[in-house]
Fold these 2 entries.
Entry 1:
Amino acid sequence: MLLNPYLNFDGNAEEAFRFYQTVFGGELFLQKMSDAPGTENLPDNEKNRAMHVAIAIGNGQHLMASDCLPSAGHVLKTGNNNYISITPDSREEADRIFSGLSAGGTIEMPMADMFWGDYFGSFTDKFGICWMINYTNPK
């Protein structure tokens, strides 16, 4: 089983994923709303929104998203009810990912060794997405 987090944005999914790509690398897959059949009647300001955007984040997993369509009644409610938890292969990779994704965001817990034995940190990125980085220290 794979876990592929799927995020919703309000018109800036492409911008967010170009930023995420600077941290994770990989190829950006992007389909615009205007690429889909039946979208010719969308308001002009929605035709350039992301219908689907994705980047590979390793081991067959992808981070994916789309933009909401206000004309279809979609309303984005940003909140802390979702975190994306990443488990990197090393402390160095944990620090790299934390540093890259937290740039311009709000750090909740800096990377540190935790009482449960892992190296952990959490933050909200500049796009309002909550992240946890958790490296499991070797026993």
Entry 2:
Amino acid sequence: MMIVDLHNHAEFSKNTSLTLGDYHREGILHGAGGVAITEHNMVYPEERLSVGDPEMIRVFTGMEILNDYGDWLVFGVTTDVLEYREIFDLIECVHEKGGVIIAAHPHRGHGVLRATSAQTAHDIIDRVDAVEVLNGRGDERSWRLAAELAAVHGKPCTGGSDAHGPGELYRAATMFHGPVTDHSELIESIREGCCSPVRFCMDTGQWVK
């Protein structure tokens, strides 16, 4: 079992004051095994990843792609996929490159159910790899609706804090059912549904489903 917070932002995203050092320190305190930095429309530079002990907190990089059809977490691709503004072309490109694409907070903010029609949204969810069910900036209603959406389409569920500031770190994460030591294992575990969303309970100091 490994806890990885799959949705977070640092200095290259808008309205964000967090640094990689913040994620290392708080990750250890929260008992997480890893964190994903998913900057807006860019990948966190590899040369800046040498912060903290990777044996304590493993850092994964992805992107949160913002387009007309919603917000999308992608792993295993580079920024060249950004040229695909039409969502079905984007999904196809991500898959051709061996990556995964996750519908971020589908019922909150610029999520797919708020960015486009319900029919188009469901057609999109049919083709993505997973649905972000627990988003740290959401509420019980948005989580429930996201879980229902994932169930209807038979999609794996993930969780992430979507942190932009210090008080938002490690609110939600994804529990992987086996070890996740690199990006290929992360991608395969998401694709195969070997994961589930969890949130951090302040009262008990434990991760709960």
